Structure formats: C-alpha cells, structure tokens
Amino acid sequence: MKSHRKELWFEIPFRRAFVNITPQVEAALAESGVREGLVLVNAMHITASVFINDDEPGLHQDYERWLEGLAPFNAGSDPESGGYRHNRTGEDNADAHLKRQIMGREVVVAVTGGELDFGPWEQIFYGEFDGRRRKRVLVKIVGE
Amino acid sequence: MKSHRKELWFEIPFRRAFVNITPQVEAALAESGVREGLVLVNAMHITASVFINDDEPGLHQDYERWLEGLAPFNAGSDPESGGYRHNRTGEDNADAHLKRQIMGREVVVAVTGGELDFGPWEQIFYGEFDGRRRKRVLVKIVGE
Amino acid sequence: MKSHRKELWFEIPFRRAFVNITPQVEAALAESGVREGLVLVNAMHITASVFINDDEPGLHQDYERWLEGLAPFNAGSDPESGGYRHNRTGEDNADAHLKRQIMGREVVVAVTGGELDFGPWEQIFYGEFDGRRRKRVLVKIVGE
User: Fold this and answer.
1) In which region does residue A29 sit, left (phi positive, over 0), alpha (psi from -120 to 50) or beta (all else)?
2) Span between the terminal Cα atoms of chain A, in Å
3) In whole angstroms, what separates CA A51 from the centre of its chain?
C-alpha cells in the first residue's frame, strides 16, 4: 500500500468564499503514483468545509445566501437576540461552525486508473466561512 | 490490496425519490472478494445524494417535506421572489444542489468478514432531487 | 494491509448530548499498529451522528438550539401540527433522524505516522439525538 500526504494552504482575504481545489488534488494524486485507491480531502479547521458540487458562480451565490439564512452571522453572544454562546469565548465565528456542518468537513473520492473517478460535473471546493487568516486542507491518498 | 469498481444506473421517473440500494452494494461487495476494507458509495451527479438511514416510508415523506422547507423548489432565478441565481443557466434545479448538501454526497462503510459492517437499521439510499434522466452512483471497494 | 475494528458503546441518560470520543479513537488506533492509512468512525444507529468540530461547551449549546430550530422535536405524527409521519410507527424520534442528517453519520480521518492527522482544534464527537438506550459507534482502521 502506498500513501501520500499533502497540505494545501489558503489565506482568503474575505470572511467567506468558495475555491475550486480540484487541480491541486489532481496534482497531489499525480505525485502519489497511486492508480487504485481512495483520496481523503478534509478541512483541517472547524470553520471551513470541503465539498463537491458545481463550479457555477450563480450557484455559489445561492449557497452563500442559503447558508446565511440557515445560520446567520451574528457577532453577539446572546441567543435571545440572534447571537451565539460560542462567541462568549471572544470569537465572532459561531455561525461558521454551523455553516460548516451543512456543507461538510470532507470528501472521499475514488481513484481509478490513476485519476479522480468523477461524474461529469463533480469538482472539489474549499468552503471558507471565517477567512482572513492562514488555514489548511489535508489531502491523504492511499492505494496502490 | 484489491480494488473493485461498479456503477449503479438510475432513471427515476419523478423529480425526487429515495431508493434503497443496499442489495446492489452488497452484490458489488460479493463480486469484489474483499473481506476487510472500506466501501465508498457516492452520487456521481451533484443534484443527488447517497446516505444511510432507515427504510421507513413515513420517514422518507418527512425528509421530503423537511428538505422542501429548508430549500424550496423554485424554477425562477430572482432571489427576491424565492428563485435561485443558478437557474439563470437555464436549469430549474438549484434547489436540488442545496438539498443534496443536507443529505450528503457519499457514505463510507466498513467491510468486516466480507460483509457491510452495519448497525441494526442502517440501509444505503440513493436520494434523487432532479430525476427524469439517467444518473449514476459509484461503488468503489478497497481492501483485502 | 492491516485492519482493526472496535466498537464504542454509549448509554446517554438524556435524549440529546455531545460526547468527545477522540481519546477512544486514539486508543483504537494505537491498538491497531497502523502507521499510514484511514480511520472510519461512524454511528451504527440512525438517530446519532459522528462529527468533527470544537470541544467548546457554548458551541455545543448553539448546536443544540440551532438543530432544534431546523428540525424541532415533536412526538406527534400529524405533519399539519408539526409532527412527523415516522412517529406513526410508534416512535417519537423522527426529529433525531433529521438532526443526524445535518450533523452527519461518519468521519474519515487520515492516519500519518501512527497518529490522527488533525488540524489544531479538530476533535471527534458522538452526537446523540435519541438517547436513554445502549447504542454503538464503529471504529474501522485500515492501512499499514
């Protein structure tokens, strides 16, 4: 069994963004030499996501709006006025911990014949919900 | 390390449905000869899900109603009236891209002694949110 | 390829709770002798979750409140008054089946150098949404 590990680093200049990281995952797979196996791609931070969906800017705006409706940003810490207890720690990112649960921490992708075994529109995204600092994604490849 | 790959094809005659695919995944596992390892089962399309839950029709109706509340179908493209920017591409399926994020793209299941290592009620479902066309699920099995 | 399997058992005395199971997963990894590979940790029951986030009590209260808003507990079975069809089976736990879809069934974690390959704040939690009975989590480790 072979294994290969790579970190992808980000410093998104905004609070929230979606970044297509498929080329970086493909590059890591090529470096690994793995032809058959699995790739795990996960956010190493708990206010960010890795997910698979469409590389379509309108959809990304829909996600942004939808997530804001389901888990609104609020820097306050009083739940009665829409704040979050987590923000009593001095953070203002509780909403990011919630948004990340909707979009997910990780994806596992099959490797077949040395390539990501994808359907026609599948692309891997980093979802940042509390940016403006350096954060990482882990790519771990196991197989033969 | 052994690996085995199988595609499951669907053409659901409705927009939305849940289909128990556990027997097909078990058949793929038997074909693989893998006794210890992992099975990845993922939707290859980005408006569909693979998830594990209960094979109970009432629950599936609850999911349908709940998802419709969290991410309502709307063929329009004006967010101010409940539409989605994604639908400006000519699609009417933006809600399906959202519903799929709640229900998930994939499951990873342990293989132990040649069988899916399941709790008492776990069953694998294909969740279709934009049907009426041919779509696929990937089953990838790795192990020994 | 090595593989190792362990069950973690819980009997949460409340309906809902979050339990940090990182130490138990680390213990299972040490027992396995695996240095490079993947760990799958999944709820074996369909009204519970395994997820990775922050070990911060305020955040857990935020999750509890947020999930209750997205999928409220209701023992009834009439959807028109907030109940769930699933409860017609005699259960009162339909909301738990919904909450678990938001928080997820499983996590897959990379193993590097014999350790869980985690970012600075990642911790693994068991999320119970229908407790007061014995339930299990599966830890399956594959690698070398």
Assistant:
1) alpha
2) 5
3) 5
Write down which chains contact chain B via at least 3 CB pairs under 8 A.
Answer: A, C
Residues of C in contact with A138 (CB under 8 A): 110, 117, 119
Determine if the pTM surpasses 0.90: yes
CA distance C85 to A20: 40
The helix/strand/coil state of C132 is coil
Dist. CA C85–CA C78, nearest whole Å: 7
Chain B residues lying within 8 Å of A37, measured CB to CB? 1, 3, 142
Q: Which two tokens stand for residue A77?
A: 């810490």
Does residue C115 sit in helix, strand or coil?
A: strand
* Nearest-Cα residue of chain A relative to residue C142: A142
What span, in angstroms and rounded, lies between the C-alpha atoms of A97 and A103?
A: 10
Touching A (3+ Cβ pairs <8 A), the chains are B, C
- A122 CB burial (10 A radius; 0-12, 13-18, 19+): buried
Element at B106 (helix H, strand E): strand B106-112
List of long-range contacts for A30-33, beta carbons under 8 Å, 24+ apart: A30/A114, A31/A4, A31/A6, A32/A2, A32/A3, A32/A4, A32/A141, A32/A143, A33/A2, A33/A4
Mean pLDDT split into 10-residue runs, chain A, 144 residues: 97 98 98 98 98 98 98 97 97 98 98 98 98 98 98
Identify the DSSP state of B79. Answer: G
Distance separating alpha carbons of residues C122 and A43, to the nearest angstrom: 10
Q: Which of C50, C62, C142 is most worth mutating to test chain A (most A CB atoms within 10 A of its CB)?
A: C62
Q: In terms of Cα–Cα distance, which of C82, C120, C86 is closest to C101?
A: C86
Q: How far is B105 from chain A (nearest CA, A)?
A: 8
